[in-house]
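Standup notes, structure subgroup. Blocker cleared on the alpha-L-arabinofuranose input:
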Amino acid sequence: MKTRIFADKNMKIGKVNDLLFGSFIEHLGRAVYTGIYEPGHPEADKKGFRKDVIELIKELKVSIVRYPGGNFLSGYNWKDGIGPREKRPTRLDLAWQTIEDNQFGTDEFMAWCRTAAIEPMLGVNLGTGSPKEAGNMIEYCNFPGKTYYSDLRKKNGNLKPYGVKYWCLGNEMDGPWQICHLDAEDYGKKALETAKIMRWIDPDIKLIACGSSGAEMPTYPEWDRIVLEHLYDHVDYISMHRYYWQEEDLNDFFASYKDMDDFIQTIKATCDYVKAKKRSRKIMKISFDEWNVWYQNKQTPAGWVKAPHILEDIYSLKDALVFSGMLNTLINNCDRVEIACLAQLVNVIAPIFTEKGGRVIRQSTFFPFAEASNHGRGYALRTITETPTFSSKFGEVNWVSDSIVYNEEKEEISAFLVNYGSESVDLQLELRSFGKLELIEHKTMNNEDLEAKNSFENPNRITLKPGAPVEINEATLKTTLEPRSYHVIRCKYQS
Ligand code: AHR
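Run returned:
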């Protein structure tokens, strides 16, 4: 199969925001407890943060982490998670039907973010929570002092305000599964009053409104239109969430990246419709703050216990190929999608997987995320891709998914490619106006067994290895993409 991809330095989509490489930690399963936080673990620091996990998070170069949920957020009282640990209440978490003893809360999360060099993104509860409580929380986090909640933060040992910039106004409020779910009108009104209170306390914050929690929702995209009509002038982002899993047809699963793109185009159009209706000049940005492959059918209620083994998907090569296409879609929409959070980061549908008291491994999805996050910062280029297509439930889809980013400071260009086909691809990559290119590396991820996965016994079964030789003639590269494989090709250019 022949594929030609053209890109020109002058044809920029936009600058990839660092926040595109964010992730998510929820009080869910073992994401917090025995994930990022495990006092007594041989690798835990004085605060109980697992250093082995932080090391891998640094390899992923995660920029921002959303916390504390997720569905958990809609029943969470943030005050349960502050102050002396022995006095914190143990609660029923209705979202995941588990026990939450609140040994990790906002102050621990902020300390963990500092240790892991991560920007925090907090959420306020708009399910059981009120606008007033959201105001109290931002006063606790961001107000300098001499008020009840800011002094409470100081009393809890945190003298300086945290200055948390990114705030989610609830989570998936369009979902009937949400604790105290609202319809679009009611959410729009509640979120508006919350936004006003929060901004009065800290005018520098960035606010994220709940958009549709998936393109399959019956309220999509009306939800987004109504919510934005209430909130357009008061928020900076609308959120999007999307998970994919294989049902019957493998090609439908491979086509996920195209469907994710269609979803983004619709939300962009909905934002622009409201912009026009409001005669506004502001361009609404997107926070794609939950995305991943997630086999939702494997979700098992675990009973009323703390930190059960739930949502612990083990990812295969096939899942990583779908995941890599989704990453390409995010990069190719970087002019509107400024923030993206891989859901989630540790143990729960995550690239990092731990044993309680023991080891940690990288899942198959770890590698494409690390490559994009380390080498996909710079300007994304519009590509013209000539490749055969396949039919799917999402329409006609290219067998080869691509994104190309160049970094001016490093004088590097990186191409991220997935061949979903069962045939090899003869690739010709024409990177116009880059002059003479010099190969840095060509890495690939493939395996004869699409179901191959990493495990504690075999932690490197799926990993990156050198790709086929690359022939370079000035700015034209030729190489082979093996069947069902992921690739990153990096070159040095001279400006
Ligand atoms: O990430 C898992 C769950 O998926 C989150 O709690 C929720 O927001 C979404 O439905």
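Discussed briefly. The chain has a mean pLDDT of 97.
Next: hand off to the docking folks.
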